[in-house]
Amino acid sequence: MNISITGILLGLGGKCLLDWALVFLQRSHICRGFLGVFAVSLAAADTVLALSVAAVHAQAGGYISLPGLTLTRYHECLLVQIFGQLCSALQWPVALAAALDHLLAVTRSPPPLAGGARPAARVLVTGLLWYLAAAHVFLLSDFIPVMEDVPHNQINQCWVSHSSPVLQVTAALLLALCCGALHAGRGEPLSTELSSKGPIAEESRAHSGRDVARQAARIFLSTWAPFLLLLAVLALLPVGLPAHLALNAGWLCFLNSLLIAAILCAVRPASWTTQGPAAVPPDSFSEWTFQLVSTGEDQT
């Protein structure tokens, strides 16, 4: 699809505002999860791209001369196209890395690193994913830039690709959530397994897989139903979402909640029966509070 450079700047500006606003909203726990660390790196990358495109576009001649380098409007389009390819390449790796991070938190698996080493490990993984995505785009993919055959100062629009991995990741995780809910719903109440195993068993026995699955799905949908509707509309549009805008902090927040819901449904029987209610990863949008039928109290 072809988008005017002004439209690209407006889109990047709005994306940067959204990114930094959500990073600020989650500042108290931004380093407690992989998605928070990645959101900071994404906001920084979006800001650099927006400032670079704006700086070139603001010049009357359509170029900027730097020591040993001249940036023109060809480079504006090239940067946007490369960044779009990077965002598309990162969708699945980011989702898988976040799923592993959440799974370790929910199951309370002993982490190999403790204290301040865990945030450092998340930063390392974030940098590694950006590096591998860049290597894929430049060395392994069949990416070919699309440029107008006109002088650089006459370029007023750029060709950008649309992103399909966003919808693919969403569909796959929603399917996983449904499968997890169905699997949990077929389980027997925990009271048959935990008749005399202490206080945690007394609380856990009131939970059946069906209860946890229903409550997890309700919590997720009560927050994100409008966003799911928006994604459904985007899937039906012939144009689609520009690739350089598809990976954003809002999408990462949605991904965070969806992963929590899917993992809670999938691993609850194994983790809750032995350790009690799971330690839910931080979420600024959905409140993962479950009702204990036996006590009438909420327990996260």
Helices, strands, pairings?
Blueprint: E1 2-4, H1 5-25, H2 34-57, E2 63-66, E3 69-72, H3 73-106, H4 117-140, E4 157-159, H5 165-185, H6 199-204, H7 209-236, H8 243-246, H9 249-275, E5 290-291, E6 298-299
Antiparallel strand pairs: 1-4, 2-3, 5-6
Quick summary of this structure?
By secondary structure, the protein is mainly α.
According to DSSP, the number of beta strands is 6
Our Rg estimate from Cα atoms comes to 23 Å
The string of secondary-structure elements, in order, is EHHEEHHEHHHHHEE
Number of domain units: 1
The level of helicity is 55-70%
**Number of helical stretches of at least 4 residues:** 9
Distance between the termini: 46 Å
Largest sheet: spatial strand order: 1-4
Largest sheet: 2 strands, antiparallel
Class based on secondary structure composition and strand pairing: mainly alpha
Q: Which residues form runs of ≥5 with pLDDT under 50?
A: 188-207, 294-299
Percent of residues in β-strands: 5-15%
| Basic shape | elongated
Tell me, rounded to a whole number, the average pLDDT. 78
